[in-house]
């Protein structure tokens, strides 16, 4: 294996410096020497970060069925100084990834062959990230929107679009926010792997609370594109009291051609999507024609979702 997922590298950035003497206890028996596990710090596009390199033998490269793989995870985690939460978190991540793959292949998890997701490579990525967060004492994870990426890449299934079908399924399952790649390049390649998408969509909340920062670090990817630094940042801190509710916004739009049936459906659907409150106000528009103003109070995540609405006012409420 050439490199680990950025999520694992990022989680290890600070952990590596503070717990270096014992970090080999967290890796499987196939990683047996310093030459097999290297965690160097190096700059990439002006950003100093940590790149994780693990060399696995042929046995570790074999893929598994889902149930067999979860048993491997259980044995691996419980044979290391990891208990309880790391196993539960790791298993939840793998199950979400398997469910995404099952959706893509229109099958069930029980009949799914995991391919790249069922290797010890992926196990180390996931368990390493979870273990790093545990050692750092991280209780909650918050994430920014995912970069979409463009182009194609090669996998065990052949040439696939970016983002991959499994990654797209993970985005959809988590209702995760996405943004265009930095600079909107024509071909970025794969910017978010299914492994990283599985880790973040399982563990993270997609909002940014006010925090008192205590430490930060960067995990490096194997590619070094010219357009942007291929890094994943990790900031560790304490949430300031009163900041966990996030900001609320008022969305308003004028409707002059909607029936009562349509408005009733919109009212119901907005609440299903997470709106805090929804109401209608009778108004007059051009030539004094009666119309309706649709108003909704939403949080930051819902406000930033892609939409076909024309929102003419968006004042901050909190």
Q: In what order do the strands lie side by side in the largest sheet?
A: 13-15-14
Helical content (DSSP H or I, runs of 4+): 25-40%
Q: What is Rg?
A: 23 Å
Oligomer: single chain
Termini separation: 47 Å
The count of helical stretches stands at 8
Stretches where pLDDT falls below 50 for ≥5 residues? 1-35, 308-318
* Averaged pLDDT: 75
Structural class: alpha+beta
**Tertiary shape:** globular
Largest sheet: 3 strands, antiparallel
* Whole-number tally of structural domains: 2
Number of strands: 15
State which percent range the strand residues make up: 15-25%
SSE succession = HEEEEHHHEEEEHEHEEEEHEEH
Organism: Geodia barretti (Barrett's horny sponge)
Protein name: Nickel insertion protein
InterPro entries: Ni_insertion
Keywords: Nickel
Care to describe what's here?
- The structure is a single chain.
- By secondary structure, the protein is α+β, with helices and mostly antiparallel strands.
- It folds into two domains: 6-239, no CATH class; 248-303.
- It has eight helices and 15 strands.
- Keywords: Nickel.
- This is Nickel insertion protein.
- It comes from Geodia barretti.
Highlighted features:
disordered C terminus; nickel; Nickel insertion protein; 318 residues; alpha+beta; 15 strands; Ni_insertion; single chain
């Amino acid at each position: 294996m050439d490199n680990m997922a950025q999520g694992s590298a990022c989680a290890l950035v600070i952990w590596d410096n503070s717990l270096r003497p014992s970090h080999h206890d967290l890796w499987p028996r196939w990683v047996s020497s310093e030459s097999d596990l290297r965690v160097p710090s190096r700059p990439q596009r002006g950003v100093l970060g940590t790149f994780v390199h693990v060399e696995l033998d042929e046995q570790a490269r074999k893929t598994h069925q889902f149930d067999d793989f979860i048993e491997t995870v259980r044995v691996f985690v419980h044979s290391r100084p990891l208990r309880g939460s790391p196993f539960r978190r790791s298993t939840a991540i793998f199950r979400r990834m398997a469910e995404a793959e099952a959706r893509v292949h229109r099958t069930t998890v029980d009949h799914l062959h995991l391919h790249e997701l069922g290797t010890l490579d992926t196990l180390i990525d996931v368990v390493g990230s979870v273990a790093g967060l545990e050692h750092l004492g991280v209780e909650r994870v918050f994430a920014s929107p995912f970069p979409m990426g463009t182009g194609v890449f090669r996998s065990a299934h052949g040439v696939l679009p970016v983002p991959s079908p499994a990654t797209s399924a993970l985005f959809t399952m988590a209702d995760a926010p996405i943004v265009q790649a930095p600079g909107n390049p024509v071909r970025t390649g794969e910017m978010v792997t299914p492994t990283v998408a599985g880790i973040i969509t399982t563990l993270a909340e997609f909002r940014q609370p006010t925090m008192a920062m205590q430490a930060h670090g960067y995990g490096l990817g194997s590619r070094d594109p010219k357009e942007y630094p291929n890094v994943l940042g990790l900031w560790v801190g304490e949430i300031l009291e009163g900041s966990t509710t996030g900001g609320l916004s008022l969305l308003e739009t004028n409707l002059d051609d909607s029936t009562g049936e349509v408005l009733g459906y919109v009212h119901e659907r907005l609440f299903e999507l997470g709106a805090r409150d929804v109401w209608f106000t009778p108004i007059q528009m051009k030539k004094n024609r009666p119309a309706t103003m649709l108003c909704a109070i939403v949080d930051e995540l819902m406000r930033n979702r892609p939409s076909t609405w024309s929102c003419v006012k968006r004042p901050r409420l909190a």
